[in-house]
Amino acid sequence: MPGDERDRRDRRDDGRPEQTRPRDRTGRPLPYGTDDVPLTEDHDPATVEEALQLGVVLWDQQRFFEAHECLEAVWHASPEPDQDLWQGVIQVAVAGVHLQRGNPVGAATLARRAHDRLAEYPEQHRGIDVEVARRTCQRIATQVEEVGVEGTDLPGPFPAAPGGPWFTPDPSALEPPSTPTPVPDEPVWLAAGKPRSPRRP
Question: Whole domain around residue 129: which residue ranges?
Fold first, then answer.
């Protein structure tokens, strides 16, 4: 009925929906006023490099929901040749979220999608140990099928190659840029008026 908390919509100043209800560490909304469980924290990095660094820290704390939200800034700013790399890494984190939520179908599906997205990259790229990430995907999908979600291990530490992950807006770059990259308001492919690469099934 009107006025019921279930019907209340959080809105931004421009009228667009915004979720302000507290969420648990896996991103599930909780009743207003909840403060007796660990909650997600809002992160507002100013640069893509800050978002990446924070995403790695949160990942290593097994706060996969928050990690994936930070890493989306990296994906959104990435040039087209790197989009599947960063989206694949994000999907590994989301597989971890599904495991924490006890959702075997979601965990296995995201792990397989991530594996497919990462398949086109070399063993190490942009400071990501892509081979480790792919093996993690295979392990999650196999364990979910064989022993169920309760027996499946979460993703391990962030799959960083020696020297750590790094971002560049230049697809031909062999090292990080010398100046920080601002977090974009929208994905590069939208801002440039270009369609995104087709999603793999």
Answer: 48-162
Evaluate whether 86 touches 74 at the Cβ level (below 8 Å). Answer: yes
The more confident residue out of 40 and 128 is 128
Annotate 49-108 with DSSP letters as a single string. HHHHHHHHHHHHTT-HHHHHHHHHHHHHHS-HHHHHHHHHHHHHHHHHHHHHHT-HHHHH
- Residue 107, domain member (yes or no): yes
pLDDT tens per residue across span 133-170: 999 999 999 999 999 999 999 999 999 999 999 999 99
Rounded to 5°, angle at Cα 41 from 139 and 18: 100
Examine the pLDDT at 14 and tell me if it is beyond 60: no
For the chain, give percent helix, strand, coil, nearest 5: 45, 5, 50
Give domain status of residue 193, yes or no. no
Check whether 98 has a pLDDT greater than 80.
yes
CATH number for the domain that contains residue 127: 1.10.3450.10
* Alpha-helical segments (H) within the chain: 48-60, 64-77, 80-101, 104-118, 130-147, 188-191
What residue type is 145 in one-letter code? Answer: E
In a domain, residue 7? The reply is no
Instruction: Tell me the whole-structure pTM to 2 decimals.
Output: 0.80
pLDDT value at position 191? 47
- The answer to whether residues 154 and 62 touch, using CB atoms and an 8 Å cutoff, is yes
Number of domain units in the chain: 1
